[in-house]
Design a protein that fits this description.
Bound molecules: adenosine-5'-diphosphate, magnesium ion
Oligomer: single chain
Largest sheet: 9 strands, mixed
Low-confidence stretches: 629-642
Radius of gyration: 31 Å
Structural class: alpha/beta
Helix content: 25-40%
Number of helices: 24
Distance between the termini: 28 Å
Length: about 675
């Protein structure tokens, strides 16, 4: 039966339902999935040896004839022994397999390749033990000789089975049209797609493997870069509200602040304001260290949109953050504008200072344009109740790495077809520049590169579990000074299995240890209103110690909090610790961060790296080395990551180079529809 890449395995003869189910577990459902299921490593089983060579070397592969084969139960009972004598014409060799009773029928009188190790044992003499075998056919052996691919597997399927399946598929697939234009292949010395796919599984040598990897890595990056560029171009073809720079009101706003803007804040705000004047959709990401003051930049953009008569949406990943932004927006903006600010959060609807009973009322205000700045969480894009706006001018998404890429699309697609609101996202995830350019190639990036003046670096100390008392002494001093303390635990509830601190246990401990002070608890399971009240009381200093989870990792701004203690710091990624620590040191007072950790795995190494690193970027790079990019960039959730199978994000040079190649290509060929195969591939990729 003819098949192509998109053919489902269920339509292929010879793959039963049970196998399909197992393959599905590995994410393999189509022919394409199967041939793009790459080996995790290779085993070099060497060239074919003669039996006498094998006896000398002790390990390797032979081609031989099975002369005698029989089976018996071993003296230890239970175990099935299959014993054979094989010959290569010159010498013969004894071969033993354990517990594979079907072998007699399979191998009797056959020509076979055998790969394994010679063992010498008093009970059966010199013999090849449990070798991998395969019957000699016209095609070269795939299991026993040379570089043999080893796949990441699950129960119910063997290396041999998947290998054979992939081999068969590769040899049967009638044609595999290469979508990569000839000129690119020629210019950059890349091999053909079909060849690359076959060589990535069954390379004759290391060079072939390298060629294959080079080609397929190129594919991953090239497609990403091209599609990013194409998205970018498409966006720029649409129109957007013209936001005239409102000089007076902007000045008033900046003057009303208690501080001077940093030069990064000024530079990037200006860039944004200029961009929004052009009537083309802005699509911009602000990357800035925690505490660098991204919110102000967003507020300046928002203010200008409001002053031009447009609505603005601000979306945060948590209710606490949405509330915080709402409060700040009111505090800052009310001094300079009369626009209405509303909060649409879970069971919490506010219109300026007024509580609104039903969501419907607020939704109507938004529709009628009575609500100007709309602040909220995911609920803004909830499927059940799609918001409609009167005239949406700008969407701001805070901590954007917390959202999937598709989510922002959801807000956007609700707008008119050829008209898009401006789009601004904020992230404290410090991504090295080259990487950001590639991963977010469809977006323009603003870097806020400095912290406000006068901030002191947080003094960070690591303690082993038994040095706790020392840290508690230090905390007692901070409390005496009327400073606020965060205590962060990885879990909410106690767990007997894991020896990890939970918020609930720690809350009891801390209450006892610091009985003079007010201690409160906060985690994801606490009710929304309760959460917001607790944060509010903590902010005001009515609570001295807040025992919490990494819930507070993102964005919370509580200037009076100077101290943080992290329990089981080994459980957190470096980038996450960095975010956590970013909650303190937000004013001129000296801040302290204490890490308690257990020395498991590479914890020591990671904690030390954390103590040494000075900037977010440094931490990002360390995390990249120690943990890989997935978690670091929150990229896994975004769905894009599945497309990277080979790319190692440490290969910045390759990443950079491919991006440039893609740019050149697009410059040269304005209309890539001239390359129908490539165009199809990109369309598929963008889906
Ligand atoms: P982040 O970039 O992490 O979102 P925020 O916008 O929450 O940071 O700002 C952190 C704190 O710094 C806030 O309390 C804010 O008022 C303050 N801040 C922002 N810009 C400045 C500045 N230029 N000088 C002094 N403080 C600033
Ligand atoms: Mg923030």
């Amino acid at each position: 039966m003819p098949f192509n890449l998109k053919t489902k395995l269920s339509e292929v003869k010879g793959i039963g339902a049970a196998k399909q189910k197992i393959l599905k577990k590995l994410g393999i459902q189509t022919i394409e999935d199967l041939i793009y299921y790459f080996p995790r490593t290779f085993e070099n089983r060497g060239n074919i040896l003669s039996i006498s060579q094998l006896k000398k070397i002790g390990k390797g592969c032979i081609k031989s004839h099975v002369k005698l084969i029989h089976q018996r139960r071993s003296y230890k009972k239970r175990i099935f022994l299959t014993e054979a004598i094989v010959s290569d014409g010159k010498d013969s060799l004894k071969v033993i397999w354990f517990n594979q009773p079907f072998l007699k029928r399979a191998l009797e009188n056959k020509q076979v390749y055998l790969s394994g190790q010679i063992n010498s044992d008093p009970s059966y003499g010199i013999a090849l033990i449990n070798p991998v075998w395969e019957i000699v056919k016209k095609t070269p052996p795939i299991h026993t000789q040379g570089l043999v691919p080893i796949y990441p597997l699950t129960e119910g399927i063997s290396q041999k089975q998947i290998r054979s399946l992939i081999w068969l598929t590769l040899s049967k697939i009638p044609s595999l049209k290469d979508w990569l234009p000839e000129e690119i292949k020629k210019q950059y010395g890349l091999i053909d797609l079909k060849k690359a796919l076959s060589q990535i599984h069954f390379p004759k040598n290391v060079k072939e493997l390298e060629q294959a990897k080079q080609r397929l890595k190129f594919d991953e990056l090239f497609l990403l870069a091209l599609s990013n560029k194409i998205i970018k171009k498409k966006i720029k073809e649409k129109s957007a509200p013209i936001i005239k720079f409102q000089e007076q009101i902007t000045k008033n706003f900046v003057q009303s602040l208690k501080f001077n803007l940093t030069s990064s804040q000024k530079r990037e705000s200006w860039k944004i304001l200029k961009e929004m004047e052009k009537g083309k959709p802005m699509n911009r990401l602000i990357i800035g260290d925690v505490g660098s003051g991204k919110t102000i930049v967003a507020l300046i953009a928002a203010l200008n949109c409001l002053a031009n008569g447009y609505q603005v949406v601000y979306m945060a990943p948590t209710e606490i953050l949405a509330q915080q932004f709402f409060d700040r927006a009111k505090q800052y903006l009310k001094k300079v504008t009369k626009k209405n600010i509303c909060l649409l959060s879970k069971n919490n609807y506010l219109f300026n200072n007024k509580k609104i009973k039903t969501k419907r009322t607020l939704v109507n205000y938004i529709k009628q344009g009575k609500a100007d700045l709309i602040v909220g969480t995911h609920s803004l894009i909830s499927q059940k109740n799609p918001l409609t706006f009167k005239n949406l001018g700008l969407i701001i998404i805070d901590e954007q790495h917390r959202f999937g890429v598709e989510q922002r699309a959801k807000l956007v697609t609700k707008e008119k077809k050829n008209f898009l609101p401006h789009f601004l996202s904020l992230s404290a995830t410090p991504i090295p520049r080259t990487l950001a350019l590639t991963l977010y190639g469809d977006i323009d990036i603003s870097y806020i590169s400095e912290l406000p003046a006068g901030r002191k670096a947080v003094i960070t100390k690591a303690f082993k579990e038994d040095e706790k008392e020392k840290a508690f002494e230090l905390i007692a001093q901070r409390l005496k000074n009327k400073e606020l303390v965060f205590i962060v635990c990885p879990l909410i509830n106690p767990s007997s299995k894991l020896e990890i601190r939970s918020v609930k246990e720690e809350y009891e401990n801390i209450k006892k240890r610091f009985s003079k002070y007010k201690v409160a608890i906060l985690h994801g399971k606490v009710k929304s209103e309760e959460k917001i009240k607790t944060i509010e009381n903590f902010k005001r200093g009515k609570i001295n110690i807040l025992v919490t989870t990494s819930l507070i990792e993102v964005g919370i701004d509580i200037p009076k909090a100077t101290t943080m203690l992290v329990e089981n710091a080994e459980r957190f990624g470096l980038a996450q610790l960095y975010q956590l620590r970013g909650r303190i040191g937000r004013n001129k007072k000296q801040a302290y961060c204490f890490l308690f950790y257990k020395n498991v795995g590479n914890a020591e190494q990671r904690i030390q790296a954390f103590l040494k690193a000075k900037t977010g970027i440094e931490i990002a790079e360390k995390d990249l080395l120690l943990r890989g990019p997935g978690e670091l960039f929150g990229y896994a959730q975004s769905g894009k990551s599945v497309k990277f199978k080979l790319i190692d994000f440490k290969e910045t040079e390759l990443i950079e180079q491919t991006r440039k190649i893609a740019n050149l290509f697009l410059k040269k060929h304005q209309d890539i529809k001239k390359f129908p195969l490539l165009w199809n591939k990109i369309k598929e990729y963008l889906k």
